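Customer escalation, tier 2.

The customer says the design service returned an amino acid string that "doesn't look like it belongs to this structure." They asked us to rerun it and document both sides in this ticket. The original structure tokens are below, unchanged.
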């Protein structure tokens, strides 16, 4: 079932339809928020706030076919509201909730290997330290396995720009992580 049809059903009073939309878009919204604010635990809260705002404002959506772009716009405004409120005090990556394993955030393969977990923690710390434009595309690309074309549409740039940003972000990460090993 399409997003547009789920929007129509949610507007007609079927709450389960919006729950399905939230399930479909939660990872992408979380990644977008993480890319914008640079803190995973804050991104989770902002994503929840975005989904709630989306539910409350669903009647204001003029074109149900554009639900995803509309919801991502709400996510960006939610992040900007949070940033403007100056609630973004520095939080160390090591202070993330204990039940969230680093392997769940990005490319890492889950496993008991402590060295691997340390490498993933270092990688995520460096990802969070990237400039916003690079951090945003990395997190969106790897959180939700979004294509270059979808990312380009979401961020309002060309697929070539997405490619350039991901390439540059990976190069920065390689450079920073190799400096850590020296």
């Amino acid at each position: 079932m399409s997003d547009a049809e789920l929007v129509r059903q949610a507007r007609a009073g079927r709450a389960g339809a919006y729950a399905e939309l939230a399930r479909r878009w939660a990872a992408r919204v979380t990644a977008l928020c993480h890319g914008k604010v640079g803190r995973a635990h804050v991104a989770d809260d902002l994503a929840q706030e975005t989904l709630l705002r989306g539910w409350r404002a669903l009647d204001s959506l003029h074109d149900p076919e554009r639900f995803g772009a509309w919801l991502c716009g709400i996510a960006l405004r939610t992040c900007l509201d949070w940033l403007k409120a100056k609630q973004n005090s520095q939080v160390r990556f090591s202070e993330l909730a204990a039940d969230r394993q680093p392997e769940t955030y990005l490319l890492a393969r889950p496993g008991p290997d402590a060295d691997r977990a340390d490498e993933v923690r270092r990688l995520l710390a460096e990802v969070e330290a990237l400039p916003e434009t690079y951090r945003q595309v990395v997190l969106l690309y790897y959180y939700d396995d979004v294509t270059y074309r979808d990312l380009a549409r979401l961020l309002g740039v060309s697929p070539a720009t997405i490619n350039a940003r991901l390439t540059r972000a990976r190069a920065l990460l390689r450079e920073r992580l190799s400096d850590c090993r020296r």
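Tier 2 assessment: The sequence is consistent with the input. The chain has eight helices and no strands. Helices lie at 3-11, 15-37, 40-56, 67-84, 114-129, 132-144, 148-155, 159-181. Sent an explanation to the customer and offered a walkthrough call.
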